[in-house]
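can u do me a favor
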């Protein structure tokens, strides 16, 4: 009876954890076969239609098996799937990277500021790489780390060069963001989306989005909503699956996306950036958020 059920599943891919590029527009996949559609199908649809890098999909901070169906996990209409096991920490590190970059830009002639911001930026880029497993150093992303302390302990246990946080700066600010998140966002239908909206507004991005889609909070029962209302919200906050084209044809540069922001076509390649053992090199675009790590040398 429930096999044929029309629902829409949203996916928050990597770039949506960055307030600099955050918007309420999430990619989505429409499901018409509730029991026959697998998680792997959703993942491949997102990768095929949006050039997104997706290793695993997560619901309620738990990785979903590719061969299991939507019905197996009882995903409801409007569910948001995450592409990282630690979406909140990924968002926080992105926020701190924006703040550090602004400090650097505000003091172009201060050698001391330039030095510490460069070091801090590289450290945060390293932590982000670990959380997203962007260089495939590990079998998969780390398990969910529910507190700042658990994140710090994990990084210490990992022992990766550069994957550290200053307890009086980054760690302190992450704890403050976590506390505010628990107080202000946790009861929203999309707690992380609410957090990102607030942070985007605080950082002064002119296109800061407004809360829109009413989707169930992960791990909570879906509030009663009509099908028409759900579709209306989805239409306001979603973009159809499209490919970037030039003159009706896919461009050659867009065959390879930036490995850090995943939003722009790769323009440069640095064999030294984010080097990890025998795995070195990263393709980057020319945006302000990605180019500072080019030729920055080893993590410190």
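np, heres the sequence
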């Amino acid at each position: 009876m429930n096999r044929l059920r029309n629902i829409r599943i949203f996916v928050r891919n990597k770039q949506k954890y960055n307030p600099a590029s955050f918007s309420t527009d999430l990619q989505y996949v429409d499901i018409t076969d509730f029991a026959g559609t697998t998680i792997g199908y959703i993942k491949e649809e997102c990768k095929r239609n949006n050039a997104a890098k997706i290793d695993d999909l997560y619901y309620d901070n738990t990785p979903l098996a590719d061969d299991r169906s939507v019905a197996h996990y009882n995903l409801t209409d409007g569910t948001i799937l995450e592409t990282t096991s630690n979406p909140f920490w990924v968002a926080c590190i992105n926020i701190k990277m924006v703040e550090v970059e602004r400090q650097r830009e505000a003091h172009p002639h201060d050698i001391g500021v330039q030095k510490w911001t460069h070091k801090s930026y590289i450290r945060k880029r390293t932590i982000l790489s670990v959380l997203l497993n962007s260089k495939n150093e590990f079998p998969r992303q780390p398990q969910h780390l529910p507190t700042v302390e658990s994140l710090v302990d994990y990084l210490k246990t990992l022992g990766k060069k550069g994957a550290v946080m200053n307890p009086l700066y980054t760690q302190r600010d992450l704890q403050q963001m976590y506390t505010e998140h628990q107080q202000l966002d946790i009861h929203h239908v999309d707690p992380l989306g609410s957090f990102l909206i607030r942070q985007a507004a605080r950082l002064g991005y002119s296109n800061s989005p407004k809360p829109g889609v009413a989707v169930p909070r992960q791990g909570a029962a879906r509030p009663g909503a009509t099908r028409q209302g759900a579709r209306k919200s989805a239409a306001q906050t979603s973009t159809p699956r499209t490919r970037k084209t030039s003159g009706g044809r896919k461009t050659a540069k867009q065959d390879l996306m930036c490995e850090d922001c995943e939003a722009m076509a790769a323009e440069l390649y640095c064999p030294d950036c984010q080097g990890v053992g025998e795995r070195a090199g990263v393709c980057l675009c020319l945006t302000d958020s990605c180019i500072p790590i080019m030729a920055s040398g080893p993590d410190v």
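Residues 208-255, 274-280, 288-300 have pLDDT under 50 and may be disordered. hope that helps!!
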